[in-house]
Design goal:
Largest sheet: none
Distance between the termini: 98 Å
Low-confidence stretches: none
Helix content: 55-70%
Strand content: under 5%
Mean pLDDT: 85
Order of helices and strands: HHHHHHH
């Protein structure tokens, strides 16, 4: 099957507007309508990832939506890289926030 330029634009624009499982289901339904060889056609002509298409086809067939773990991606908190960071900050702050006893004693005595 050959995709026209207008159909190609419509499919890619629609896929870009959708997110998560809605996008995968749209891709899977589109590939099913394209028929045999639809996955490779969609990959070649539309630039869609075949793994995403396969995941969508699996969701479509099983009726079970795969949960996206977006919050598990990206930059990890500083504590993950520096496990003693909080203790180190407390040690610095505590040492600087303690009043000097000699100046506190001198300030309290009349002079």
């Amino acid at each position: 099957m050959e995709l026209t330029e207008s159909l190609r634009g419509l499919l890619t624009a629609t896929a870009k507007q959708l997110r998560g499982s809605a996008r995968r289901l749209f891709m899977a339904r589109t590939v099913r309508e394209l028929g045999p060889g639809g996955q490779s056609l969609a990959e070649r002509e539309l630039g869609w990832n075949r793994e995403t298409i396969r995941k969508g086809l699996h969701e479509l067939a099983s009726g079970i939506t795969c949960v996206d773990a977006f919050r598990l991606r990206g930059r990890k908190p500083a504590e993950a890289h520096l496990p003693h960071l909080l203790d180190d900050i407390r040690a610095i702050v505590d040492s600087q926030s303690q009043a000097d006893r000699s100046s506190a004693v001198g300030a309290s005595t009349p002079g």
